[in-house]
Amino acid sequence: MSTSSGSISSSPAPAAFERGSGPVLEVDDLHVEFRTRSAVVNAVNGISYSVDQGETLAILGESGSGKSVSAQAIMGILDSPPAVITGGGIHFQGRDMLTMNAEDQRQIRGPGIAMIFQDALSALNPVYSVGFQIGEMFRAHRGTSKKEAKQHAVELMDRVRIPAAARRVNDYPHQFSGGMRQRVMIAMALALDPRILIADEPTTALDVTVQAQVMDLLKDLQRDTGMGLILITHDLGVVNEVADRVAVMYAGKIVETGTVDDVFTKPSHPYTLGLMNSIPQVEAKGGRLNPIVGQPPNLAAIPSGCPFHPRCPRRRTGAEALPGRDCVADKPPLRLVVPGREAACHYSEEVLGV
Amino acid sequence: MGRFVIRRLLLTIPVLLGASFLIFAMVYALPGDPIRALAGDRPLSPAVAAQLRADYNLGDPLVVQYGKYLAGLAQGDFGSDFHGRPVLETVSQRLPVTAKLTLVAVLFETIIGLAAGLLAGIRRNGYFDNLVLVSTTIIISIPILVLGFFAQFIFGLKLGWFPIAGINQGWYSYLLPGLVLASASLAYVARLTRTSVAENMNADYVRTARAKGLPNRTVIVRHTLRNSLIPVITFIGADIGALLGGAIVTEAVFNIPGIGRAVFEAVKGQEGAVVVGIVTLMVFFFVFFNLIVDVLYAVLDPRIRYD
Amino acid sequence: MTEQEQRNLDPAQVETDVRIGVGAPAAESHDVKQNSLWSDAWGQLKRNPLFWIGSFLGVFFIVMAIVPQLFARGADPRSCSLSNSAQAPSGEHWMGFDQQGCDYLANVVYGARNSLAIGLFSVIGVLVIGILIGAVAGYYGGAMDSLLARITDIFFAIPLILGAIILLKVGPSTGLPILSDRGVGAVAIALALFGWMTAMRLVRSQVIAVKSQDYVAAARAMGASNLRILTRHILPNAVAPVLVYSTITVGVLIAAEATLTYLGVGLQRPAISWGLQISTGQSLLRTAPHLVLFPSIILSLTVMAFIMMGDALRDALDPRQRS
């Protein structure tokens, strides 16, 4: 494995992004709105997270929680209009990407931060060979020749464990199976040794066995390169297997952070608690399921106070609530509950049981 | 790719056979006297009629007739007029004119249509986009017949910018008729390109290209354009058929001595064999062009090659 | 924006993901209003100005075709006097006179009947042939589909105008009913015979898409015959795109008829047709341009009416353009 990464770094260009210390990526109070004809949708409402090198952060949430939007905001590929970044900062190795000009931003995309998507068949251009599309990274960012770029593409395809890479480098995306196509995307993303890889639901469209293979591959690659991995998903099982830390999102906000072990075994937010309780238990066979009641919120009309309050079994309002901590009226900030754990709930300590 | 071309070539043969049979059937297999059909209202002496009957093998059973007809086609015998002049001779004289006209039309159609469609598609719902939408609707609605006369009247008679008729001014004389011929096709190409580009700009692979940090120009030219062109190329190929029909009208209106006008004159002059002969030739051209376009399509879109 | 994000955007339909763990089935479910395809389409149609313009023009010309007397200002298209030959338009006679000295307004107005009749009948023909062949090809598939596809390819090889020219040229001598009369029916037959192919392909692809739906399998499991499945279940759901197409086709075929008549193979004198009027007026283009101008304008407006309506219909029924 180290010999393959050796051959990548030996391409004639300075490693643009050094491995330094401190968090590689810091998202700071990010706000994103979608301004449609009928409503303004508050997709992301002030989220902050950071990723260190070598670390895997999982962003967990349902459809509509804003997790993909925040990632796309980082990559600068939001459709604007209608999307508008209305506040916050995105710091890559200390530099705020939102204040950079477009050209500087573009040079970070690819070499510094890379992204892979859910559906590899539609995410890859059907009329160009996979070798061409992987090689594009080298040709566009490093001015490599076509021949060398193709060579690098073969090496990368080898590295992501695509069999017969030298022969398949000229094949087209539709000629690969789903799992192989996803590996092609990973190869493409890894081409320039980025410091951060964002994986947006990378295994949702794949079979369970193929899922496991792809996640293993990602984990191995991360170990080799020391890159930070942001895994966006709604699959608790994947988070459990692969991630170090997790940030749970709800209604465009982060409602809980912590290590995966801590958060999953002892949640400190009612939403996370509800998720954990809703997982069907083998022992409880024959009983009823415990879903979270209600529906996810309409992002154009987010409930007042704590956005989870309409569905929260622990909500307290009026006389029961402590001053300044009325679930219907007061927005709970994301705060430290115990060291290493943050939660956005007025009564997290109770949920945690401390 | 090679296998695709061969397969496509093999498919062309039954189509050519079928089309020529259809034309043959219309003239010779329907009830009534084919000679009368070809001669229309032209009076024929019994001797001439008998001679023609022999020439066209009308005494033979239908299958044999068709066989001899096909053999004739293969040898370049597309019939002749009532003065004995072979259709092929008329065609070879006049073909260059129609070829030039059609070439001008295809160039107009492709260049203006693609450009307008691209600009409209990239800035969807902009001012230019709506302009293209409305103007193409109007252009498509005006038949080439009418457009020809309007153009002739306004730009030829009144403004004097272009010759009213004929081809006495070299390539310049082909500009106005060529544009008229291309008009409806141009409008369709513009619309199709616009829709195709607008759709492709939202495609997932365009998003991937941006996420890869590729420069904007590369994203548009390499990842949007080629994909958008695919349906347009297919259309242009199929549209050549409409151009051939339109050429007949355009050459009639502008008095251009091409094979289209030859058909027009043959209809008026009751030269049925000439009409059938030239139309058959046009059909063969059409099929051939479609073959080329299909191959071009496969070059652009690799998914097709492996069907 | 991908489908995923599109759905995220729609305030009323943020989807609850039912994967293990997150967003498990909720106890109460909201009733998302299901608009049918047609009521949605009507809503969008109402807002499209081109639809209203097209419909107004269309209705205008259809009425003109049915009761031309209303529009001809009392003139008889066939009462002519050579002393008025080719006179220019005036306050009394809005479109002047033609070469024979007949009131031109009356002639142009009465011409609508033939054109619209041909438009109507040829499109009916296109639909009948196209739906029949397309449905059979799509439903039965296999060898039948291949055979019909080949036949369609053969017809596709012969462009509309070219095929119609030959059929109409030999038609009169065949002695076949309608076809040999050189009238509205003959032209309609010729146009339908060489214009059905696109309709066939539309119907075929829709039938193929629909026949794998669950409700078709259900009908079959209940013992419904093939014919019943086709007519009751598949065709009603497969028909929308071809309806749009046929509206536009009315316009296209009206233009085609004028062209064929101009070329000499369509309607013949003494029929009143815009194509004939343009053809006769051609020689006097310099001195009496109104002879070509008026039928041309009316013809264009008629074609435009149907194309606008068809366009508006297509936009309204297009699932991707729904807001």
Describe, in plain words, how this protein is organized in 3D.
The complex is a heterotrimer of chains A (354), B (307) and C (323). Chain A has 354 residues and is an alpha/beta fold. Helix content of chain A is 33%, strand content 21%. Chain A has helices spanning 2-9, 67-75, 102-108, 120-123, 130-142, 146-159, 165-168, 178-190, 208-225, 236-242, 260-265, 270-278, 348-352; strands spanning 25-35, 40-51, 56-60, 83-92, 95-96, 113-116, 196-200, 228-233, 245-250, 253-259, 335-338, 341-343. In chain A, helix 5 (130-142) packs across helix 6 (146-159). Chain A is globular. Chain B is mainly alpha-helical and 307 residues long. Helix content of chain B is 79%, strand content 0%. In chain B, helix 5 (87-122) packs across helix 8 (172-201). Chain B is flat, with a radius of gyration of 23 Å. The mean pLDDT of chain B is 88. Chain C has 323 residues and is an all-alpha fold. Chain C is built from 13 helices and no strands. Chain C has helices spanning 3-9, 37-46, 49-66, 104-140, 142-156, 160-174, 184-195, 197-211, 214-221, 226-238, 240-263, 274-281, 290-317. The longest helix of chain C is centred in the middle third of the chain and has 37 residues, at 104-140. The radius of gyration of chain C is 25 Å and the shape is globular. Residues 1-35 of chain C have low confidence and may be disordered. The chains are: A alpha/beta (354), B mainly alpha (307), C mainly alpha (323). Chains in contact: A-B, A-C, B-C. Chains B and C meet through helix 1, helix 2, helix 6, helix 7 and helix 10 of B and helix 5, helix 6, helix 11 and helix 13 of C.
